Amino acid sequence: MALLDGKKLLITGVLTDRSIAFSVARRAQEEGAEIVLTGFGRAMRLTQRMAARLPQEPDVLELDVTDDAQAAAVAAELESRWGVLDGVLHAVAFVPGDALGGKFLEAPAESAKAAFEISAFSLKTLGATFAPLLEKAEDGGSLVGLDFDASKAWPIYDWAGVSKAALESVNRYLAQYLGPRGIRSNLVAAGPLRTMAAGAIEGFDVLASAWEQGAPLTWDLTDPDPVADACVFLLSRMSRAISGEILHVDGGFHALGVHGAAVVAAQDASQSST
């Protein structure tokens, strides 16, 4: 029996075939799940294009995570279609460019607020909106979000890092408030990957090369499948007693005590090569 046999999943954030969300969607289908994707605005076409590249082309519903009416409309559609929801993947994040790349001290409040609303508060939005469907899941509903280790301050990550710290706190509170309804909430803290979102972060290569040099299990910047597999596990019955957790999938880099030295060394190497 496949790990997600018969499960009904909602997956956000599929923009390219290099994204973690795309790999989760593909792996979920391979493990027997029926999925629906969401897209938004001009990126909707990208999501529809990626949907056609999956083993079975799923429907794509419009969802702006800052629009409560759209979220409610998606919930109503899934209620009509399935009557139940087994899991949701939160793969939504956005930080304005003036709040990244070493601009922490100069970043305006409006950019920090936008980063928080889209990257962190939206996890609460999905959890609250889809709770009535998730609590009907036979093995308990599962909310899974994508994270980047927020226990440390990373060069160039700036207000994205603050937003991830907020995301981790939101995850804990969702575990507290949704747990009595049989719904679990967990995050997967991934190492850096060369996704479209990463390409928008000025100085991303500084972080990336630190993982390449320092992860004890090694780390492939081009392979999102290990992260996707962890998400599939958390969406499955196998994780039914896990909630409020942050599962690191980063080649073991988070466990080491030389992060700062590794990142500084990578930054020095980058500067000396230019």
Termini gap: 53 Å
Give the class from helix and strand content and strand pairing.
Answer: alpha/beta
Estimate percent helicity: 40-55%
* Residues in β-strands, percent: 5-15%
Per CATH, the superfamily is: NAD(P)-binding Rossmann-like Domain
Largest sheet: 7 strands, parallel
> How many domain regions?
1
Task: Name the poorly predicted regions.
Answer: none
Radius of gyration: 18 Å
Instruction: Return the CATH class.
Output: Alpha Beta
Assembly state = single chain
- Count of helices? 9
Describe this structure in words.
The chain is an alpha/beta fold and 274 residues long. It has one domain (8-272): Rossmann fold, CATH 3.40.50. Helix content is 44%, strand content 13%. It has helices at 20-30, 44-51, 68-81, 109-134, 158-178, 196-199, 204-214, 225-235, 259-272; strands at 8-11, 34-39, 60-62, 87-90, 141-147, 183-190, 246-249. The chain has a seven-stranded parallel β-sheet, sandwiched between helices. The longest helix has 26 residues, at 109-134. It is globular. The chain starts with 7 loop residues before the first strand and ends with a helix. The mean pLDDT is 92.
